[in-house]
Amino acid sequence: MNNNLPPGLVEAFLMWIKLNAPAVYGSFAAFGMATLLTLRDGKSWLDALYAGLICLLITLGVINSLELFGMSQDNALIVGVVIGGMGVERCLAILRVFASMKTNTPPMDDKDQKNDK
Q1: What is the pTM for the complete model shown?
Q2: pLDDT score for 49
Q3: 9 in any annotated domain
Q4: Count of domains observed in the chain
Q5: Residues 6+ apart with CB under 8 A from 53
Q6: Predicted local distance difference test score (pLDDT) of residue 27
Q7: Residue 69 has what DSSP assignment?
């Protein structure tokens, strides 16, 4: 069998997973929670997968910055479940408020975003 992977890629990937295990299982917990809650709300599978992926990415960012908030990486699972349970809409609303506080601009309402398109 012809293997086109660079030598050592699989070993490097497994080592990265081993070193970042809390971030991996915390973000997959967020993915699972967001996906299941979106499906429970009656939305499509595609919407559920998008919500899960967005929550996974948000969780990766939050888990990697836990030490800045004085928390240990052992809290990654709790953070992942909370972010996945909040869902994409609430996470994005929190991010919008945080961004508006940092830029000193008023947060946009849903009406403003629809008129902006």
Answers
A1: 0.74
A2: 92
A3: no
A4: 1
A5: 31
A6: 92
A7: G
